[in-house]
Amino acid sequence: MATDTESAAPGAGTNFGVPNEKMGMWAFLGSECLFFGAFISVYVLYLGGTGDGPGPAIFDIPFTSVSTFVLLMSSLAMVMALAAIQDGDMRRFRTWTLGTALMGLTFLSGQVYEYTVFVEEGMGLTTSAFSTAFFVLTSFHGVHVSIGVLMLGALWFMSFTGRIDTSQRSQTAVENIGLYWHFVDIIWILIFTVVYLIPVDLLT
Amino acid sequence: MTAVADTPSKGLLSRPGASSGWTSWLTTVDHKKIGIMYFAAALIFFLVGGLEALLMRAQLSTANASVLSADAYNQLFTMHGLTMIFFAIMPMSAAFFNYLLPLMIGARDVAFPRLNALSLWVFIAAGIFLYSSWLFGGAPDTTWVNYAPVQEVGPDPAGLTLGGDHDQRMLFYSLGLQIAGIASLASAINLIVTVLNMRAPGLTFMRMPVFVWMSLVVQFLILFAMPVIGVALWQLMFDVGFDGNFFRVDAGGQPILWQHLFWLFGHPEVYILILPAFGIVSEILPTFARKPLFGYAAIVFSGIAIGFMGWGVWAHHMFTSGLGPVANAAFGLSTMFIAVPTGIKIFNWVGTMWGGRMRFSPPMLFAIGLVAMFTIGGLSGVTHAVVPSDAQQHDTYYVVAHFHYVLFGGAIFGLFAGVYYWFPKAFGKFLNDRLGKTHFWLQLIGFNLAFGPQHVLGLNGMPRRYYTYPSGMGWDMWNMVSTIGAFIIALSVLIFVVNLVKSVRSGEQADADPWDARTIEWLSASPPPPHNYDEVPVVTSRDEAWHRKYAGGGGEVPRPVPAGASADHAEHGEEHHGEHIHMPDPSYWPLILAAGLPLAAWGVVTGLWALSGIGLGIVLLSAFGWAMEPESEPEPHAESEHA
Amino acid sequence: MAGHRKAILARTVVIGALALGLAACGRTEMSEYPLDALSPNGPIAEELDRLWQIVFPIAVGVFVLVEGLILIAVLKFRDRGDGDLPHQVEGNTRLEILWTIIPAVILAGIAVPTVGTIFELSEAPAKEERVEVEVVGKQFFWQFEYVNEGFFTANEMVVPTDTPVYLHLEGDPVYKGPDGREIQEASDLVLHSFWVPRLAGKTDFVPGADRYMTLQASQEGTYLGNCAEFCGLSHANMRIRVRAVSQQEYEEWVAQQAKPAASPPEGPAARGEEIFGANCVTCHAVKGHPDNVGQRTGPDLTHFNSRTRFAGAIFDVEDTQQLRAWIRNPPAEKPGAQMPPFGPDQISQGELDALIQYLHTLD
Questions:
Q1: Residue B433 lies in a domain
Q2: Chain B residues 27-86 with CB within 8 Å of chain A
């Protein structure tokens, strides 16, 4: 809205004093909670549905812990990137943005590697209800990380064209993508806990 | 695809110039134009869905008829349900949200105008995609609820138990609804932000028109319900398209899971369909009774209560699926008690009419029609809540009658009321009064003839989703009556379409406030300028427009305010003047992005992964173009927009 | 005057709707219809009906009240064209509380017997006094296994009057073949719903899960039923017939059904038995047939001729013409039928007649 961009303070002219973009992102993340909530519930429901295939014992907790740690750290990098653009330091902003995206990519590579190992060990998408639930849940999350990486890449690219600068509007955009990124991280913590950490007999 | 070739010659990242003519409709981000397009598209789907219903009624008019094959019948009733719910009533409501919410809250547009255009085009793309299934050998045919595992049964060697390449039909179902879901979700986010954040000065929550309230509740329902069916559809896609095991019994899957996910979405969906109509009547009854809505707070809070309670009743669609006595009792109770807030609304509407000076123009007739007809649907709903007795009614024509009284007698009557009411606002012309009244009475009679007898049919044991039935069950006469009723409805809708075409061309002129109405959208011109208000009104009370015209509230008889006396209101308004208001520029990207989605989906259906790649590529590139697009073109051209 | 016409029309509509409502509860006239849910003929269905008898009058009462109020308002509070404006009443707290509480109290009143009946009906009848039948819904016919008596039948079941029949809707059926090996039901079962309106409400058949229901008939006679959950092309063509008979007649029937089929001595029927062995045993079981493998893809035909209907109980067993057409091309007779067509190149005209003669010996 024309009136929003003209005003100095973020969210000025709105009823709640929150920029529209940010409120929209919160609404979207609220909706995402139900997406992941439903997928996680289905996974828990199907823990026993392993058929003839392998069950949760197949998971390599130390390996996934490392990639989880990388993803967690990327949230920190995202915070640094936001702080940089708010300070008006575009060089620092670019570095941290790229760093966040690269850490996201590292996580994704870990996921791809993990999948290939599982398939080799005899657990593919079609093996059992359990395996389908696992792959669909984690890949759905992976798609979210990928979209985040794409958006971070776009931010980095646009910081060179001038579309992303130190303006209020750009800061709100970065903040929003940051919100999304943190959300995807938090969801992973939840998935990691439910899928990898909690012993199966506690859930069934 | 062709849309890509239309990329602007001015350079890839410039915005299209604002202009009149049909191309301006493709790139517009104006909520009013988008609202009108929503309405037009939804009307077309409504007519198609109605045609499907007529074919079904022709087949059912007599016992052992052979108008349609079983396969054709199954496709038609599935598509009828999907069309009416996802492509007629929902977008028809969206037309009202889009057109009216910014006007009613005194905003210049929605929060995200381009996202709004995207919602429209994605909805249309989803409809085209779903209907294209007929070009690929057949439409979805396993009911709109598509209970697992019937969806898993592919073409079997012995004889086709379901007909056609069934996997393909299921992919059309799954992907078509997912695309439609994207549209609804984007629109929900957009409208939530709009209503929460962009209200005019003084327009507090308890001064918001009830239509705005009900719309807000609906957006939250969409926001939280769409993901649930999204998950179910995503799982269905994996099962059918990629041999997943979510609903395959032999691999450890549980078919009943589908029912839970579907109805966890499906019941809030019922309120998504009906609450907008409730909002519409809550605007129309006070205007035509010429007194305020009776019990505003009660109506608002009962709407919110319905929104919350709507999440706790889903298993009443599953009383015969064997959930056990405890779950059945719990959901039976919750279902009974959701009748309380619904009853409150009915009584408050009657209270609004009571003691009024009612004028029976077409909007009022349809609004009263809703109150009278929805009551019947609500009461038959209570009989369903009696779980043991529902074991007789479930999946019979009694249920078909029930939800048509709710969705046709409720939602469709309400939406027609809204069309007659706000048409003068949108076009500056009235819909023809005589044709409108004919439409109403024919529709009321046809509707009761079509669906009233279905109560009897159901109690006489006629199950639903039967393409044929034997004679001698007591079903013959009532089915014939029902078919006659359906054709009377069709006639009434035909009259409506004629009225619409005639009135758009040469309807009687309407001024800004032709009904002597109560809410602020009537303060703007008819049709409103692109920026809605030259000066954003400052709201000092509920029924703001009324109070600018008449003094005296709180039970008194009102006195007209002398002309000019209301000017003091306007003085508080923001100091905006028409020529200085720069509205967002149109954009190509919503249309192009939307075009990518069905391409990707066709790729999945046909197994042409390259096509999916192209579709997704278009989506990604246009998302990037969207982000890179300048805020506006340097040349302001706001004035030339409304030609 | 237009207003007057409207009033008359409105009144007609309301009266019409009322008449429909009354027609729905006019049980004596309706009871001639075999599927009438409002003419229960056994304690279970009567239990459901008892609740309907409570709710329906209340619903009619509320209907009359609301529509009456609307009608009065429409007639009384019309704009008379005198330019008068009404009092701007914004609400009435006392009234609003009243119409919140009264419906809630009425609903609570309905809720009490509802919950009671739910739990009452969920109890299984005592093991010693019930007849147990295992029910499997297939595309598109019903298979009944009398577990304790040890035989199968399809589409038609016979039950003793005044005895609870406990149905086990078995979503994961496994059978024993004549050689003792286990036969797993094909995994492509779909949902169905078992419904004989005059004897009980409906219960879904859920693949992979167990569901139970009880039905009971008070009078002798044939009770019809249908599949009530969409299951594919011939959802409309999988009917149920429940024949309620005296205890003695029931026992005779059980004794007959438990017997294996006798091989016909000589002639076309004996030839038919051979043709059956060559073409049909891969899907149909006939206990006593020399080639029987106990396959249950299609209905058990051991006592085919003791039934009155076949193919989802839509065709007459006596109708030789229909049987011929059926075997020649089942999907043409009943959409989606899983039985493949048997053309003249597989079964010649003479062989077909012999086969049908054999089927008619299966009493």
A1: yes
A2: none
Whether B593 maps to a domain, the answer reads no
Percentage of residues in chain B with pLDDT exceeding 70?
89
Domain total of chain B: 1
Scanning every residue of chain C, which has its alpha carbon at the shortest distance from the alpha carbon of B329? C115
Each domain of chain A, given as residue ranges in start order, spans 19-47+65-203
Residues of chain C with C-beta less than 8 angstroms from the C-beta of B448:
13, 16-17
CB count within 10 Å of CB A165 equals 15
Which of A39, A42, A128 lies nearest to residue B251, judging by beta carbons? A128
Chains B, C: CB contacts within 8 A come to 351
Tell me which of A6, A136, A177 to substitute to probe the interface with B (most B C-beta atoms closer than 10 Å).
A136
pLDDT tens readout for residues C6-23:
545 555 555 555 555 555
Chains C and A touch (3+ CB pairs under 8 A): no
Give the confidence band of B4 by pLDDT, cuts at 50, 70, 90.
Answer: very low
Name every chain C residue with its beta carbon within 8 A of the beta carbon of B152.
Answer: 188
Residue with tokens 């690219």: A157
Minimum mean pLDDT among B8-17, B602-611, C320-329: which range? B8-17
Segment B244-251 shows an average pLDDT of 88
CA distance C77 to chain B (A): 5
| Minimum CA–CA partner of A11 in chain B | B197
pLDDT band at A52 (very low <50, low <70, confident <90, very high): confident
Report yes or no on B594 lying in a domain: no
Helical spans, DSSP H, in B132-254: 166-197, 210-242
Model confidence over B257-285: pLDDT tens digits? 999 999 999 999 999 999 999 999 999 99
pLDDT digits (tens, 9 = 90+) for B219-240: 999 999 999 999 999 999 999 8
CB contact under 8 A, C204 and B466: no
Q: Which chains touch B (3 or more CB pairs under 8 A)?
A: A, C
Where are the domain boundaries for CATH 2.60.40.420 in chain C? Answer: 129-242, 267-359
Owning domain of residue B216: 22-573+604-631
Angle formed at CA B514 by CA B508 and CA B520, multiple of 5 degrees: 140
For chain C, list residues with pLDDT below 50: 1-3, 7, 25-30
* Closest listed residue to residue B320, CA positions, set C165, C229, C35, C171: C229
Distance, in Å, from the CA atom of A26 to the CA atom of A183, rounded to the nearest integer, reads 10
User: Class of the C267-359 domain?
Assistant: mainly beta
Fold of A19-47+65-203: Four Helix Bundle (Hemerythrin (Met), subunit A) (1.20.120)
CA–centroid distance for B591 within its chain: 21
Interface of A with B in 144-163 (CB under 8 A): 150, 154, 158, 161, 163
Instruction: State the DSSP string of C253-308.
Output: HHHHHHSPPPPP-SHHHHHHHHHHHHHTTTT---TT-TT-----SS---TTGGGSS
Closest CA to B424 of B583, B561, B284: B284
Q: What is the CATH number of the domain that holds B168?
A: 1.20.210.10
> A203 at the B interface (CB within 8 A)?
no
Residue B582 belongs to some domain of the structure: no
Mean pLDDT value across chain B: 89
Interface test with A, best of B196, B223, B245 (most A CBs within 10 A): B245
List, as one string, the DSSP characters of B464-481.
SS-S---SSSS-HHHHHH
pLDDT digits (tens, 9 = 90+) for A169-198: 899 999 999 999 999 999 999 999 999 988
Distance from CA of B172 to the nearest CA of C (A): 18
Report how far apart, in Å, the C-alpha atoms of B27 and of each of B22, B586, B591, B596 are. 9, 5, 7, 16
**Contacting residues for B56 by C-beta, under 8 A, at least 6 apart:** B68, B73, B76, B77, B80
Cross-chain Cβ contact A24/B198 below 8 Å: no
CB pairs under 8 A between A and B: 133
* CATH class name, domain C129-242: mainly beta
B621 touches chain A (CB under 8 A): no
pLDDT at B151: 65
